[in-house]
Specification:
77 residues, mainly alpha, two-stranded antiparallel sheet, 3 helices
Length: 77
């Protein structure tokens, strides 16, 4: 009887371990990098660095490129 109970326990333990491994695989570094890259929508016209939103883009442009003229898409932001 102990043998049957041990078998069930080891199967449950192996199943939990497999589920844990599967969950960890879904959130790997490459997946995070792809998601981060997808979030960077705006690209600076001067230095080609990427920003997530127009407000950050405008701040970047004003701080890093003060002598350059502000692009038309940032004048209304």
């Amino acid at each position: 009887m102990a043998r049957g109970h041990q078998k069930i326990q080891s199967q449950q333990k192996a199943q939990e371990k497999a589920a844990k491994l599967k969950k960890q695989q879904g959130h790997g570094l490459s997946d995070q990098m792809k998601a981060a890259q997808k979030a960077l929508v705006f690209s600076c016209a001067v230095c080609k660095s990427q920003m997530p939103d127009p407000k950050t883009y405008k701040q970047h442009f004003e701080n890093k490129h003060p002598k350059s003229e502000l692009p038309a898409d940032l004048k209304d932001v």
